[in-house]
Amino acid sequence: MPADWRTTEPLVGREGELERLLIAAGVADPEARGGVLLSGDAGIGKTRLLRELAIRAADAGHRVLVGHCLDLGDSAIPFQPFAEVLAALDDPSRKALSDALPPLGPLMWGAANGTGVDRGELFASVVAALELLASSQPVLVLVEDAHWADTSTRHLIRYVLSQRYDGAVRFVISYRSDDLHRRHPLRADVAEWSRLPGVQRLDLGPLADDEVRALVRSRATASIDATGLAAIVRRAEGNAFIAEELVDVDDKNGPLPPTLADLLLVRLDRLDDGGRQVVRAVACAGAEVDDDLLAAVVNLPPDTLEDGVRAALDHRILSRTSNDGYAFRHALLAEVVRDDLLPAERRRFHKAYAEALAGRGDSADVARHAFEAGMAEMAFTASVRAADRARRVGGHDEAAQHYERALSVASAAPPGTDLVDLVVATSEALTASGYVRRAAGVVDDYLQDGAATLSDTERARLLVAYGTATVLGDRDAEAAQAVEQAFALVPEQPTALRASLEAVAAHVAGAQRRHDDAMRWATQAMTLGQRLGLSRVVDEAAATKARVRALRGDDPAGDERRFREVAETARASGNVVTELRAHQHLAFLYHDRGDLDAATAEFLTTMQAAEKAGRRWAPYGFDGRFFAALTAYLRGRWDLVEELCDVSALRPPAVHAGSLESVQLLVAAARGDTTVLPRARRLRDSFWHRDIALAIHSGTAAIDLAPDVASAQAWHDDLVASLVTDWGGRRVPARLRMGALLAGRYADAAPHVSASERSAFVERAAQLRVDADRAVEERGPFGPEGEAWGRRLDAEILRVRWTAGEDLGLPVMLEAWRGATGAFAKLGHVYEEARSTSRLSSVLHAAGDIAGAKQVASAAHETAVSLGAEPLVRQLEQLAGATAVAGGRTAVPQASAGEKPLTAREREVLDHLVEGRTNGEIATLLFISTKTVSVHVSNILAKLGAATRTEAAAIARRQRA
How far apart are CA 800 and CA 421, in angstroms? Predict the structure, then answer.
């Protein structure tokens, strides 16, 4: 927006939108709170509308604060619009705010000094600053061009929009809707922001033809005939910017330039050489340019430069900014001018900018210009400075980008640069951004590339960083190998490197369940860390010790206290990573004890704390979201699952997205949604080798969803192969769950296959139990979840044997299914408790306990309906029908042939009649009484008009043919 909001140009065609903005911004409604997301295509009139809003708001006594997001590509400046808002305040206001709120210092004054700012404190300070400003007059914050906002800025926008302010603080955020392609980072944020209380969306559509005509008449400096006016209306298609541009085209009926770029470049031809030189220089700036910077970049005499600037302003190509600088009136203008430059011209301008900004400009700007100019050493130095600054204010994503760009020109690093330190910093920033595999890859690449030149100490530092990244990425074997190599290089001396190595070694040993080694290394790391004053090492080792003690069961009563103590100590020392780790371990403690509600709450706490620290996708932060979704699935809170796993809104890194999708697949499997099977295949092919939890959850969902038992067997075997090949072990706890689900598929299929196939099912089911026993032996004992799936596996194996014709005795079956149902009830797994209950109901029915069967089936049916688990609902309704018949009430009344269709249960009975089974065999296979089968057969004969069972089977065969 220009510095002078006042304008003689009338606002055309936006009266309704302006009225809505005035109300939402508190100008027309002092009680309004919240914000507006203002969208529209480029050139549609968003800035002009905001300009009018600013005028009206200022006239009404509001303090209007304006910030802009800039198109800086990979050189994004964290929190740019908010820094602009604060920097534009008068000096007394800035001084008062910075004294009251020290975390605002880096944004307020552009300083990069100090030890850094906690991201959560920075966010809270921005809100507090707005509250302080609003104490004297209403505050309206306008943020323009959010489609260019960096990740950190988008997080801060979400934060300020979500707050409840005591004073009158309102926001309007504008963005280009035509820029929001499917993968644009803002797309999901807008969807999330619009769900916040008090936030409205306002999309500017094209102007009507009459409005375009009025706009043209208000802007034209000379008369335009009807033919020319009609041409503008036709060509502009409601876009205010294009309409204004066409006003200055001489031949309005001539050929329309093929692109907007052509149109803009035709307009530039009206400038003289000096004007064109100015415009080209500003196009390369990427932001506004003041007089001094422009003079340093453009090689023109002062008078010529001033004439060029004035011409660009007069032709409405450039406009004045609030900081007495110059910028393009429309971003599209800058884009097409920049694209039209020759490569040598661009490099020359960028070189001039880099040299002019060195020492006084933002380091991200300097780095961007230096890269464009091919000035590698300057690009390296500026990128590192930009990364360091971004990291200090919690901009981990931007820090990672800047560090990686610096590494790309590391060969140009100044003498004496510690490149190992840069590699480690890059790895840490990538980890904080959620790219753990890439973090490990950066370190590994440098280990390989620099093998011949690295000293033992440098190599050990990199190995410690590699071990840290790989253990966080669940690549325990690689982490253990790195630790072993590092120990060969680091002597047992009281050094910080040795302490860090011992802490990582303890973490790795704990992950591999080598408890004695973990406790030994953790104790040594704590001792040495305390001696050297290394609080982070001490905290991390303490977290490992607490986790190992919890796994070993040394002192169950003290486990919760120890985790909370570690979290509090880490928080006090500013060690966010260990604080999050302690909260996650506490959540798993609750989970392993079967207190899933407490586990869900603690996982959510971890997730929220991580997001506040800017570590949404980092280890522990993402794990909090993932496991909160998983425990919510177990507890039947499937709406929460969908909210936590909405990847279209969240836009996580690819592997994280796959992990969240895998939890969604569990819900889809329970609901019988077979359309998601292609998603399961995509996850298998792309991500099983990258995340073991993703593989297990999507694989087990696919076992349930597979269209037939052979496909279910294939999914099971694929999952076993992945566990062996990709994750170094066949015997994992998930084998109980995998086996139980596959055995269930065997039991379901057994009534419909040959005797030899049923016999094969029995043998395979027995092998599943053998595999499960080995898993328990090698990795157990397991908690409530492992116990539940173990009991379920036993019960499903019995069901396989029963349907294969073995006479096991109903008491054995009842005991097994009561055990499975009770175990899932104890765990709190709502869906699997209901599914086990349906099996129990069948066995109770077969045992003649009709009342008991009805009672448990009714409760399970209520659960299944509430979850939307349609396959289980249908199964339980079939059981209810069978129970009604057995109790003396005919579920399907007698009818003449053709009057009523067969019920689902009658179709099942008919299938077995076609196979030639007796009533007793059918009763055994379907877990119902022989009497009930007899009633079904009578109903079938009546409905088909058949006199005998043989005739009914023949009719069924003819109908199928």
Answer: 60
pLDDT at 332 over 70: no
Which one-letter amino acid corresponds to residue 488? A
Amino acid at 32: A
pLDDT tens digits for 811-853? Answer: 999 999 999 999 999 999 999 999 999 999 999 988 888 888 8
For the stretch 86-101, pLDDT in tens is 988 888 888 899 889 9
- Cβ neighbours of residue 234 under 8 Å, at least 6 residues apart? none
State both tokens at 472. Answer: 């966080």
Q: Do 440 and 619 meet the contact criterion of CB atoms below 8 Å apart? A: no
Alpha carbon distance 295, 293 (integer Å): 5
Q: Is the distance from CB of 285 to CB of 354 less than 8 angstroms? A: no
User: Are 565 and 558 a contacting pair, CB within 8 Å?
Assistant: no
Cis preceding-peptide flag for 781 (omega within 30 of 0): yes
Give the separation between CA 67 and CA 878, rounded to whole angstroms. 63
Give every strand in the sheet of 63-68, ordered side by side. Answer: 63-68, 139-144, 169-176, 34-40, 199-204
Long-range contacts of 227-231 (CB under 8 A, 24+ apart): 227/252, 227/253, 228/252, 228/253
Per-residue pLDDT band for 5 (boundaries 50, 70, 90) equals low
Q: What is the pLDDT of residue 382?
A: 94
**pTM of the full predicted structure?**
0.74
Tokens of 252: 């309005």
pLDDT, greater one: 941 or 694: 694
Exposed/middle/buried for 376, CB within 10 Å: 0-12, 13-18, 19+?
middle
Q: Which of 528, 503, 536, 496 is nearest to 518 (CA)?
A: 503
Structural contact between residues 274 and 307, judged by C-beta atoms closer than 8 angstroms: yes
pLDDT at residue 258 above 60? no
Distances (CA, A) of 594 to 270, 588, 787, 864: 76, 10, 11, 22
Q: Looking at the chain, how many residues does it have?
A: 961
